[in-house]
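Data availability (excerpt). The following record was deposited with the supplementary files.
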Amino acid sequence: MGFVRFCACCLGIGACLVTVGCGGSSEGTTGGTTVPGGSPSAGNANGRRAIHEPVQSRGIKGEDPRAEAATTARISAGDCAALGRLAERRLGDRGRDAVQGADDRSSGLDLSTRSDPKPPLSRCEISGRGVSINVYLDSGFAAHQRYGNRIAETVQFNTENPAGLPQAVPHVGEKAAYNADANWIPALRSLLALRGNRWLTVTISVAGKSDDQLRDEAAALARAGFKLSAS
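Predicted structure:
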């Protein structure tokens, strides 16, 4: 009798599993995930289980992981030091006689650098008397798409504020129609530029420099930043 009861119990459990497995509900499945109102074939076409794409492929603004994968590109501590020396040379007192081989700090600005080299968002800070410069390199997923979104949003929200509108800058970003891959935003004192899947931003403030001069200095640093981070 005990054996019969055991068999009956097993049969009951098996019946329950069969009932659940047969899908008594009207809900369909996609790759093992229940989808209300779906059809049985939605996730099991031709008897094969559907395969989900990576979560990062579901970008809400058009991101494409196959073409815009993250990279390890970064601005290293050495790159940051090189950018600091470039800024020192360009912004220093060019009227003073320079002794060959002398330290770049002879310009009198006494610039210092601080580096955060970890990708995908590495950073170089350059500061000194009357000088504040930040260089950011974004090499994360969909940097190219996010750059485009940022420029479009900046235009959208500054239609009545000319100083907030992006101004195309040649010979900084990759080749594009209307120099669209490098833009200076006067109100933010920021240059945003793109090469491949590297989005580089330079924010700059230098006492006594005009807006055009700041743009040119930011462009020089951006070109150098792209060159340094490409290696």
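Summary of structural features: The chain is about 30% helix and 20% strand.
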